[in-house]
Amino acid sequence: MSGKPAVRTVLGDLDPAELGVCDAHDHLFMRSRLLPGQELDDPAAAEAELRAFAAAGGQAVVQWTPHGMGRRLRDLVVLSRTTGIHLVAATGLHQAAHYAPERLRDLDLARLFVAELTEPIAPIEPAEPADRAEAAGPLGRAGLIKVAGGYHGLDRHARWTMTAAAEAHHATGAPIAVHHELGTSALDVLDLLCGRLGVPPHRVILGHLNRLPDLRLQRQAAESGAYVALDGPSRINHATDHHLFDTLAALTEAGHAERLLLGGDTTTSAARGNPGMPYLLTALRPRLVREFGPELPELVFRANPARVLAFA
């Protein structure tokens, strides 16, 4: 990477000013033994979703599916080329329960994360042939480290993965995105990542905080300088919609508009009743404009994602 900040997409490094309207947390492909029957593994369906998002004005999607959960990097490269949507892929590791124990043995996590951020992801996951990138140039690299906390606490696995994520961040400058189980443990995460491991808060994205409607906690998280991702409005299995606008209003009024992100976190097929990625732009964005004026949508969909995703 040159000395200029850049967002690392699956097609290579991108000027942050060119990222455009961004869904800051979503999934095109994913599989987990904890979610039988909810696999996202259909490239044609993913293409249709991206084209619908583009038709609504979308230009970029950040896929938070981490290592070992069916990211399908080769398909992401092809989809980005064919749809024109900028795609940011994730390295990292989810909670231990998503993996067979043998998948986690003997992993040098920091080395793995750095390799996936700096080299095309090909031979590093031999068990997932569809997850291999094309081996030419910079194609298929990850642009984000995704890790996960537990429910109201951080277990040994979470501390292991976050320690490796911090090491990879210090080596590459990559942002770190955190899954918070039902919105909990944000302060524990900040204490570990930013307090003990030295990751600057503005390089951390705290996901799912709207699943725990605790405005004091959300304000405290934003006051740290970390980004707060309010994600899940296009899902059918989390009751986040009814307090989304109160949360946005409270954090904006507290002066934290520049730390807010919105994402769909679409992990269930649109064919099963999910409104999908376009919902962010067709339903939520017009309401944001009416409620807050045009400045807040510009921040949450354009300026803030471009800022946090850029490698320094």
TrEMBL record:
Keywords: Hydrolase, Metal-binding. The keyword Hydrolase applies. InterPro entries: Metal_Hydrolase, Phosphotriesterase. It comes from the Bacteria. The modification N6-carboxylysine is found at K146. Pfam families: PTE. Belongs to the metallo-dependent hydrolases superfamily. Phosphotriesterase family. This is Phosphotriesterase. It comes from Kitasatospora cystarginea.
